[in-house]
């Protein structure tokens, strides 16, 4: 496996085409390279031939089942595996971890949580995440730090997560509901919570000299339009 690649290679294995595509788009926006497979048999072949840095693996698959794919893949290559499933049974989680899986996420999947788990597994296995840079502002998701022209910008954990979501989505508007779901983990709460944190984030960025990085789309959400460097 590539321990220093700027773009880690992630194989997504899920027979739900829409979900697999959604995950792939989110991971590519976060700076990863992705490949998608919808069948357990072809997924195992892809793992053995391409040796990805990490595998996101659904349990309910046509062809070989997810547990069998995971068992063979881990035994043959040692590839890190995160199981994905609609099941929430403790015995399934225990079985997956006993096979050597690194983590386990239950559907419906929150992309923000999934990205955090992916980064955590990749750090443990020695694969680093490339920093994101927009107009001189840099965020490092491995160290959870932000800096502007080499000077650290002090942010709370929540402010950092909001900024990371916006910088990964550079050029796309993110709604308040989306940020609630991705940053806080739920979608039924007062959107003013987002406004308060974005306001604080803007003040800290302005104090650091970043300027008007975050724009508001009235009644829609927020966007960063800066050019990546």
Report on this model:
The chain has helices at residues 17-29, 40-50, 66-77, 90-98, 111-124, 157-168, 176-184, 192-207; strands spanning 9-13, 33-37, 54-58, 81-85, 103-106, 132-134, 137-140, 145-148, 151-152, 174-175, 214-217, 221-224. It starts with 8 loop residues before the first strand and ends in a 5-residue tail after the last strand. It is built from eight helices and twelve strands. Helix content is 42%, strand content 21%. The protein folds into two domains: 9-124, 3-Layer(aba) Sandwich (Rossmann fold), CATH 3.40.50.2300; 132-224, Arc Repressor Mutant, subunit A. A hairpin with a 3-residue loop joins β11 (214-217) and β12. The strands form three sheets. A five-stranded parallel sheet has the order 2-1-3-4-5, with helices on both faces. Strands 6-7-8-9 form a four-stranded antiparallel sheet, covered by helices on one side. It has a three-stranded antiparallel sheet with strand order 10-12-11.
Please specify the SSE layout and strand pairing.
Blueprint: E1 9-13, H1 17-29, E2 33-37, H2 40-50, E3 54-58, H3 66-77, E4 81-85, H4 90-98, E5 103-106, H5 111-124, E6 132-134, E7 137-140, E8 145-148, E9 151-152, H6 157-168, E10 174-175, H7 176-184, H8 192-207, E11 214-217, E12 221-224
Parallel strand pairs: 1-2, 1-3, 3-4, 4-5
Antiparallel strand pairs: 6-7, 7-8, 8-9, 10-12, 11-12
Helix pairs in contact: 2-3, 6-7, 6-8
Q: Oligomeric form of this entry?
A: single chain
Shape: elongated
Q: How many beta strands in the DSSP annotation? A: 12
Please write the string of helix (H) and strand (E) elements. EHEHEHEHEHEEEEHEHHEE
Uncertain parts: 1-5
Distance between the termini: 27 Å
């Amino acid at each position: 496996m590539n321990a220093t690649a700027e773009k880690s290679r992630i194989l997504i294995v899920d027979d739900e085409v829409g979900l697999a595509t959604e995950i792939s788009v989110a991971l590519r926006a976060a700076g990863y390279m992705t490949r998608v497979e919808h069948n357990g048999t072809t997924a195992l072949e892809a793992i053995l031939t391409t040796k990805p840095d990490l595998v996101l693996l659904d349990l309910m698959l046509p062809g070989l089942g997810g547990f069998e794919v995971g068992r063979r893949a881990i035994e043959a290559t040692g590839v890190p595996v995160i199981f994905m499933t609609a099941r929430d049974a403790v015995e399934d989680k225990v079985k997956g971890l006993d096979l050597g899986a690194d983590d386990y996420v239950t559907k419906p999947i929150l992309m923000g949580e999934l990205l955090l788990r992916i980064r955590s597994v990749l750090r443990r296995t020695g694969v680093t995440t490339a920093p994101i840079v927009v107009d001189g502002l840099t965020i490092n998701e491995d160290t959870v730090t932000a800096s502007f022209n080499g000077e650290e910008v002090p942010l709370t954990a929540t402010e950092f997560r909001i900024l990371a979501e916006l910088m990964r989505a550079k050029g796309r508007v993110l709604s308040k509901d989306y940020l609630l779901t991705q940053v806080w983990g739920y979608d039924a709460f007062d959107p003013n919570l987002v406004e308060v944190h974005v306001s604080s984030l803007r003040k800290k960025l302005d104090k650091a000299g970043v300027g008007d990085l975050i724009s508001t789309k009235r009644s829609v959400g927020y966007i960063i339009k800066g050019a990546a460097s």
